[in-house]
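Pasting as-is:
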Amino acid sequence: MSRDARPDHPIHELLVKRWSPYAFSDRPVADADLCALFEAARWAPSSYNEQPWTFILATQQDPGEFDRLASCLVEANQVWARKAPVLAISVAHMHFSRNGKPNTCAHHDVGLAVAQLTVEATARGLVVHQMAGIVPDMVRANYQLPEGCQPLTGIAIGYAGDAQKLPDSLQDRDTAERTRKPLADFVYGGLWGNTAWAISKT
């Protein structure tokens, strides 16, 4: 079953093919591929080139470290994410290193870095599933995060697996039709709520 997006307007094939499965194969991810994913993240744009991201990484090849990172996920996410060969946690540095002032773009910029990682993963036949369901205090305790560093998301990386091996509730999510809001619902022009002219005329 294809999980490709069905866009209303033509977009790049990598964006069509990107999706976030719950089912992962036990096939390991090569170190060279992991380096490429984080290299893609490294070259994301950021406010004042601050690069306010850090990633904590663990693979199944080191069971102790993998378990330590997996324990930072909420229990509902551990059910499926522990099957992934690679887990990571994104961390945002909430102040500019150059002057100590709050970086109000930090979350945005970390998101950009993860987006580039995700596109690179898709280009390599990998899949990425991001999770808001982490336990930030567990991340801080397990990894001794310094002040001003905020854990944001969990990230599962690997190869898509067999959805039939998931619990029933997750099988439904993995096979449900993929949908998105139409452009008219979120691209505004003029007053709030008015669809932008460039969108409404198409």
